[in-house]
Amino acid sequence: MLPIKRRQQILSWIKEEETLRISDISKRLNVSEMTVYRDIKPLIDNGQVIKTAGGIALNRPKQQPGQMCSVCGKGLNPRLSVQIVKTDSLIEQFCCAHCAMLRYEKIKNDTAQIICRDFLVDTTISAKMAVFLLDAEIHLNCCRPQAIPFASVTDAEKFKKGFGGRLFSFEDAAHEIQKTMKENCCSLKT
Ligand SMILES: [Zn+2]
Ligand SMILES: [Zn+2]
């Protein structure tokens, strides 16, 4: 079997089984473990699989439909959802910036990156570079108080003209939301 064929075979197995041992792959393909390592290297390099002790595991796509918010358990709306990438490379998903900010206050020191989507143009942005509009008179149909992310301050200012509210950096918005949640003693379970 050609290396490319073996690689395709390994990929189809890993998609079905999610984890595979190197020794198993070597037996199934009837090739040496050295060859298996060589076959899987490109798959690891391009991020399709992750190396584990003695084997490989499927690297799940970051955004999958049907996943839940780690804070409130709501389903994820791709438009509003936020991801926190932690320093150990694990990713936590949130329904909206509100939940991400509540969580962030707890895992601040383990946070490597926060990814959200610009509310107007729907592009992926780093939350720490974004501005957040709080208390706007618009219902996003998610958690309240809500925080709406914008990549551009100009966009955010324009939006604010129409819908009111106040603009914050991520850190300040997170702090503000945390404060409001405490004052209102709402349903959030801690
Ligand atoms: Zn949530
Ligand atoms: Zn939410």
Question: Brief overview, please?
Answer:
Keywords: Transcription, Transcription regulation. This protein is an alpha+beta fold and 190 residues long. It folds into 2 domains: 3-58, Orthogonal Bundle (Arc Repressor Mutant, subunit A), CATH 1.10.10; 65-181, no CATH class.
Q: Could you explain how this protein is built, in words?
A:
The chain is α+β, with helices and mostly antiparallel strands. It folds into two domains: 3-58, Arc Repressor Mutant, subunit A; 65-181, no CATH class. It has helices at residues 3-17, 22-29, 33-45, 97-107, 153-163, 170-184, and strands spanning 19-21, 49-52, 55-58, 82-86, 91-94, 111-117, 124-126, 131-134, 147-150, 166-169. A four-stranded antiparallel β-sheet has the order 5-4-6-7, with helices on one face. A three-stranded antiparallel β-sheet has the order 1-3-2. β4 (82-86) and β5 form a beta hairpin. α4 crosses α6 (170-184). It starts with a helix and ends in a 6-residue tail after the last helix. The model has no long low-confidence stretch (mean pLDDT 91). It binds zinc ion (2 copies).
Indicate the topology.
Layout: H1 3-17, E1 19-21, H2 22-29, H3 33-45, E2 49-52, E3 55-58, E4 82-86, E5 91-94, H4 97-107, E6 111-117, E7 124-126, E8 131-134, E9 147-150, H5 153-163, E10 166-169, H6 170-184
Antiparallel strand pairs: 1-3, 2-3, 4-5, 4-6, 6-7, 8-9, 8-10
Helix pairs in contact: 2-3, 4-6
The structure holds zinc ion (2 copies).
